[in-house]
Every structure is written in structure tokens, then in C-alpha cells.
Write a structure and sequence with these properties.
- It is a single chain.
- This protein is mainly beta.
- The chain has a single domain, classed as Jelly Rolls (Sandwich).
- The protein is built from one helix and twelve strands; from the N terminus they run αββββββββββββ.
- The strands form two sheets. Strands 1, 3, 6, 9, 10 and 12 form a six-stranded antiparallel sheet that branches. Strands 5-7-2-11-4-8 form a six-stranded antiparallel sheet, with no helix packed on it.
- The chain is globular.
Length: about 170
């Protein structure tokens, strides 16, 4: 396989793996918005990676203080509403690739084991100012169901936003 080169200088071009996945049309994004989330209530996204190893980063936007968790060994009584992931970045390449990972908003009866937890500082009512958090490293999801749970601790009703950027290994 030849190394791509800059068209002006002929210098070899090396891409990190995530950038490579974007160029191949295999980098995806999933968004979930949970409006009117009461204080002390949660917003949840169920993830079923199927048989492929899935690498994902999460970004959370909250109305104030919150705690985000990623759970594994998850069981549910109902999946919730289906969400659709879309191709992310380099969207003009005409790729028709889709992800096989399934996403659901608002599963029922979700239980599991916490594998990561992050407090997001955004203040409490009446002095909340909103907050956001992202995990610097990607999580590898494989074998079974996973759940992202965000607890609204702001002291007020608000909207929680959750974004995942992901790619799968074949």
C-alpha cells in the first residue's frame, strides 16, 4: 500500500486512526436530547454494540450540576425509543456507510455496573450556569449492553444533551 503524499511538496501524509476512519466514512455521531429533565431525575441512553468492537467518546451538556455514568453488564425491561446515528465529519464524500451499533433513549428498568463516573460542575438553582463534560479517552464497548446515565443535580428542570462520537472495528 502506498503512503499518500502532499500534492505540492510530495511529503508523505500520515493520519491518526480516528482521522483515517473519518476519511473512510466510518466515523459516526449520535445525539440525544432529554428536555424537561426534572431535578434529581436521569436521562439515559442504551447502547448495543452488537458483535463489533465499538470505540466511543462522550460529551455531555447539562443545565447545572450533574453526574454522568457509563455502565456495563446492563439489563433492561424495555429498550426505549430508537435513535439513529449519522456519519460524522467528511460528510461530502458521498459515503453511504452506516453503523451497526443500536442506540435507544429512555430504556426502562436499566441496571448495570458502573465503569466510569464524572461529576459535571454547573451550579445549583438559582445560581446554575450550565456545564459540560467530556471524557478525554475513548471507551471500548464490546459484548453486551451499555448505558450512559446522566443525573440532573442542578436543583431545577432542564435539558440534558448527550453526544457520542464512535467508530467500529471490523
Amino acid at each position: 500500500m502506498s503512503v499518500p503524499r502532499d500534492f505540492k511538496t510530495s511529503t508523505p501524509i500520515y493520519l491518526d486512526f480516528l482521522h483515517y476512519k473519518a476519511h473512510q466514512g466510518h466515523l459516526f455521531r449520535i445525539d440525544m436530547i432529554a428536555t424537561n429533565t426534572a431535578d434529581s431525575a436521569t436521562a439515559e441512553m442504551l447502547i448495543d454494540p452488537g458483535s463489533k468492537e465499538t470505540h466511543v467518546n462522550f460529551i455531555v451538556g447539562v443545565p447545572g450540576d450533574a453526574q454522568a455514568e457509563l455502565l456495563f453488564n446492563v439489563s433492561v425491561t424495555a429498550n426505549g425509543a430508537s435513535l439513529t446515528a449519522f456519519r460524522h465529519y467528511n460528510e461530502s464524500d458521498g459515503s453511504v456507510n452506516t453503523t451497526t451499533v443500536q442506540f435507544y433513549q429512555g430504556p426502562t428498568g436499566a441496571t448495570g455496573t458502573v465503569m466510569a463516573r464524572q461529576f459535571i460542575n454547573g451550579g445549583s438553582f438559582p445560581k446554575q450556569f450550565g456545564g459540560g463534560g467530556a471524557h478525554e479517552n475513548e471507551f471500548i464497548l464490546e459484548g453486551g449492553l451499555f448505558l450512559v446515565r446522566v443525573h440532573n443535580l442542578s436543583g431545577a428542570v432542564g435539558t440534558i444533551g448527550l453526544t457520542g462520537e464512535l467508530y467500529e472495528l471490523d
